[in-house]
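Input record, target 12 of the design panel.
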């Protein structure tokens, strides 16, 4: 497993403080982050692959500082957004998967093989030439996971990946995430998704208020919002 170290991290957007002195060491295979809207969990998750740089403190992935080695970190850590439409950039499903490999140095044959594997894995083979934006919400999110996974990262970070989905598609996406061999970090309001996780961190008002097993973390979260 990769080691993600968050050391005394603070962050602000203008005058608004979002994170306050957060310190964590993450080495487990399945880690969840929960908290109310505005608690800072999505901001922190974006630091794990260098999408955001902390205003104070440091975040490192296997010793790589995300503020200085963002490109290298992103080769290790794939990111899945809440809204898959923000990740879909190419006209068709197959082209969108291949786009993630545009700077990989792989041959056309190798790219085609990886694309086919992702299509098969996520049940999208029949849609390879279809317009990506016309997929169902669940299919789009599976495509987003495939686009992150096709680069073979060591870690997948998913920011509320089931929030925009109905129950059936939320289950499909949850099953897809649970099937990954990679280390998985999930920010979510879908508490059932966390049942089999190794560790769950609860954030409130930009600080860590609980860090432990899923059951106890969910109980703490429910107390906070009660």
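The sequence produced for target 12 reads:
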């Amino acid at each position: 497993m990769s080691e993600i170290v968050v050391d005394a991290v603070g962050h602000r957007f203008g005058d608004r403080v979002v994170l306050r002195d957060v310190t964590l060491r993450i080495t487990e295979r399945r880690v969840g982050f929960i908290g109310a809207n505005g608690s800072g969990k999505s901001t922190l998750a974006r630091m794990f692959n260098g999408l955001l740089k902390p205003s104070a403190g440091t975040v490192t992935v296997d010793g790589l500082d995300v503020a200085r080695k963002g490109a290298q970190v992103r080769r290790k850590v794939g990111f899945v957004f809440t809204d898959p439409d923000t990740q879909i950039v190419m006209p068709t499903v197959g082209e969108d998967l291949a786009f993630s490999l545009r700077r990989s140095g792989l041959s056309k044959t190798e790219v085609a093989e990886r694309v086919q594997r992702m299509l098969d894995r996520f049940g999208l083979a029949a849609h390879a030439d279809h317009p990506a934006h016309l997929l169902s919400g669940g299919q789009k999110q599976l495509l987003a996971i495939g686009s992150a996974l096709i680069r073979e990262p060591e870690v997948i970070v998913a920011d509320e990946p089931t929030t925009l989905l109905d129950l059936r598609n939320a289950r499909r996406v949850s099953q897809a995430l649970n099937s990954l061999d990679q280390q998985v970090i999930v920010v979510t309001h879908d508490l059932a998704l966390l049942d089999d996780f190794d560790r769950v961190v609860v954030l409130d008002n930009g600080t860590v208020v609980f860090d432990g097993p899923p059951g106890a973390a969910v109980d703490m979260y429910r107390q906070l919002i009660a």
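The longest strand covers residues 16-26.
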